[in-house]
Amino acid sequence: MARVAITAPSSAKKGEIIEIKTLAAHVMENGFRRTQEGALIPRDIITQFVCTYNGVEIFRAELHPAMAANPLIAFTTVATESGTLEFKWTGDNGYAETQSASLSVS
Amino acid sequence: MTSRRQFLLLTCGALAAGEAVAQLDPNIAAKREAALRAAIGKITDGKPIRTGKVKLQVPPLIDNGNTVPLAVAVESPMTAENHVKAIHVLTEKNPQPYVLSAHLGPRAGRASLSTRARIADTGRVIAIAQMSDGSFWQDSVSVVVTLSACLEDGLI
């Protein structure tokens, strides 16, 4: 059910700044809403996102209930060497999702 | 532990809002103000925040508070000696002030990020950047929200 999507270039020149866009399909239930009977809907969000480049962490974000549903995070990195970008989302109720993208640097 | 200042703030807020119909928490404004201040204090550890360097882009009029695109860019050479360590995004009127805390480093190349937030009510959106030299810079934008996110939880 849980799905994620990455938009990143597959190749880049060395030293070039590339933009990476990440999207995770998630309701991001904020824990402040109520049902029609007045019961509080428990919080269910993604709490952390980490991006590693050949095993080295380059970007990390802590997400809070004020993130919109299907959180989109776009950031940049310098293309230093060919390799893989690993993306990891973790959240409430054991949510964990990983995705990777390969990047060839010339 | 509530400090004297916080206590006074909360009681003043309660008195000021006492006339309002008390379906909502009467001192919600003061509580949110205190929560925002506490959140900023936690980020900066009491250090002063200067205005500048940071550019926060949010549409000034938001039709739908459930999905608000925002972008933060910070002026920085992003070298090993001088880079942005973290970017924090906060809102003034949400039940909780935090939106996102992003940690980056010289390998980002450019200190910029974009995301989408939920904003509950008309008020300020604040972006704070923490530099590698320990200084803090901020930018804030006042936005008008027509359709609020989290409508159910007391608006002011």
Question: Could you walk me through the main structural features you see in this protein, from its secondary elements to its overall organization?
Answer:
Chain A has 106 residues and is mainly β. Chain A has a single domain, classed as Immunoglobulin-like (Sandwich). Helices cover 0% and strands 55% of the residues of chain A. Chain B is of the alpha+beta class and 156 residues long. Helix content of chain B is 19%, strand content 38%. Chain B has two domains: 1-46; 47-150, Immunoglobulin-like. In chain B, strands 1, 3, 5, 6, 8 and 9 form a six-stranded mixed sheet that branches.
Name the structural class of chain B: alpha+beta
Q: Radius of gyration of chain A, rounded?
A: 16 Å
The CATH class label of chain A is Mainly Beta
CATH class (first level) name of the largest domain in chain B = Mainly Beta
Major sheet of chain A: order of its strands?
2-8-7-4-5
Quote the average pLDDT of chain A: 92
**Overall morphology of chain A:** elongated
How many individual domains of chain B?
Answer: 2
Which tags fit this structure?
heterodimer; A: 106 residues; mainly beta; Immunoglobulin-like; five-stranded mixed β-sheet; three-stranded antiparallel β-sheet; 0% helix; elongated; B: 156 residues; alpha+beta; 2 domains; six-stranded mixed β-sheet; 2 helices; 19% helix
